[in-house]
Fold this sequence. Notes:
Elements: H1 17-20, E1 29-33, E2 36-40, H2 45-61, E3 67-70, E4 73-76, E5 79-81, E6 85-88, E7 98-99, E8 104-110, H3 116-130, E9 134-141, E10 144-152, E11 158-164, E12 170-172, E13 178-180
Parallel strand pairs: 4-7, 8-9
Antiparallel strand pairs: 1-2, 1-5, 3-6, 4-5, 6-8, 9-10, 10-11, 12-13
Amino acid sequence: xxxxxxxxxxxxxxxxxxxxxxxxxxxxxxxxxxxxxxxxxxxxxxxxxxxxxxxxxxxxxxxxxxxxxxxxxxxxxxxxxxxxxxxxxxxxxxxxxxxxxxxxxxxxxxxxxxxxxxxxxxxxxxxxxxxxxxxxxxxxxxxxxxxxxxxxxxxxxxxxxxxxxxxxxxxxxxxxxxxxxxxxxxx
Length: 187
């Protein structure tokens, strides 16, 4: 049996943001949900390539002052999450490692095998509770990427706005007006 390469002890209380700084920089994604530590192994190259392509496509249309950031931390009630992409409002602080929800217009998750349930259920509920106005979830469909666009509704939950597949290039209005064309993203 392999021995752990990093020794640590969980805190005697629930996990907090400052505890994350003591964990190894080993490529795993460390997130806190309701005081519990959640560890996700590094995603594969296809996942990162798709997230990078989407980031570039969104960034090219961004009005001055808006920022599209990969894997920045987001503070949510009872924890800290790391979405694949975060769109920060103009004027959002640049020096913060963990973005506050009031500075976020959109978060996006690219589903992978190890994150599917969190990306579909856990994370959207926490993003909605935090008051983040828009959530996109991207799946790899049989014929290419599919984007599920959600808007924050009444009662701290997301409402599905639309589903955009590789044959459905459309213009969307959030967080600004842009053309989304999943057919140009990697499959």
